[in-house]
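Sample 3 of the quickstart, ligand zinc ion:
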Amino acid sequence: MTIKAYGAYAADKPLEPLAIERRQPGPHDVQIDILFCGVCHSDLHTVRSEWGGTLYPCVPGHEIVGRVTAVGADVAGFAVGETVGIGCLVDSCQHCPSCAEGLEQYCENGFVGTYNGPTHEAPGHTLGGYSQRIVVDDKFVLKIRHPEDQLAAVAPLLCAGITTYSPLRHWKVGPGKKVGIVGIGGLGHMGVKLAHAMGARTIAFTTSESKREDAKALGADEVIVSRNPDEMAAHEGSFDFILDTVAASHDLNAYTKLLRRDGTLVLVGVPEHPHPSPDVSALIMKRRAIAGSLIGGIAETQEMLDFCAEKGIVADIEMIPIQKIDEAYDRMQKSDVKYRFVIDNSSLVE
Ligand code: NAP
Ligand code: ZN
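Result:
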């Protein structure tokens, strides 16, 4: 069926209304009418082809919350009327060692992203959540257990939430650990909330003086404005773990220096231009590590959603109609968002 969407025809073109096709649900499919879709910085990187390789037309959006409107004959776990989520993944091979371990994001045959991923359907690549409806294999559909009035603020959990939750869990963040979150945007503000909820001593690093007070309200025990060398120097050699969510190239040495012996700096931000190569001596002297992490698998995403529902955690959002998406991108580029734009998908009909 034909539905309304918003997308771009080229890297240098604004997003505009377009009509796209969704398949009729097959036996294992869940058809979802989309209520809300979060706006991730990856959407912007992709639409503008900052990482290269974007296929057009490009319809971004991988923080999706919606209502089930049809299910295939073999779908047992979902029913019409249920509230569900779709994150960054819509398919994977299901038989490689990573898929077997529930780590579909590391599928050794390549996962299929919610947008810009390979598919046999027209136009040959997947189209995301800036649209009225999506049809997804039931293995990639998540249960949403938050109350109805929080659904818009739940949407960002599907990417920003899981991308910060997964490394915090993998590196065993919890009570007794000193944890830094760098870049208090969509991902970073979720990182602060989650690290705090896991019981860690949580320190927020921001370049924005205007975020100093509210980062405390998000759950940070302390906030460091990273442009102030004295504030940074006071924490040298003291962190167990630092999660870097910054969407732009910057000096990593400023953070590796802050790690204690055997501490780890995990990068999740994927800037358009590479970071300058970090200083090796700062790494070898204290056996410090730099690592990376990609979103999270389906089982862990469900675990994160349930953890957040139980603890009452959602994103801090600013709701927009789809017609304001280019303005939202421009503001995101200037770090001017507290802390995630979410599209009200009902605006697509206007
Ligand atoms: P965002 O909302 O734009 O937040 C990024 C934050 O980084 C900004 O709010 C700002 O925080 C800081 N920042 C921006 N420019 C900076 C600069 N020039 N120098 C220092 N700090 C700067 O973006 P997001 O949606 O959270 O995404 C962050 C990055 O993660 C993007 O590159 C995105 O593509 C990537 N990502 C990765 C994964 C993954 O699986 N690894 C998943 C999703 C997104 P302050 O104002 O506090 O300084
Ligand atoms: Zn994302």
